[in-house]
Amino acid sequence: MDKIMYCNLCERNVKVKENFSCGIVILCLILVLVFFIGLFLLVGYLIYYYTAKPYKCSICKTKSLSERKLTAAQPATLSTAAPAPAAAESAKRFCPNCGGAVTGQEKFCSSCGSEI
Known about the structure:
This protein is an alpha+beta fold.
């Protein structure tokens, strides 16, 4: 469609073609669509990342291997052997009168009251 407009430089009326291109509008719409899809995916990933339950080991109950602090007392491999009984457990004392267990350095039995 032609339009007649006045030109200030040449001081006369000039025919001007209206050249409206839909290509630019379509390109802008595609860019906006890609931007919002990317934003939607980013927000979805962040929600998943912060609300997902962290992995926990079924044996040591830590969230990840980086949280597990290995020391000299704790070996890096898991052993299936039963732990050795502690010295305090092997040295249990019993009352000579009633046979009740005596803990620590007690002088009298907590069950019958007799002197140990």
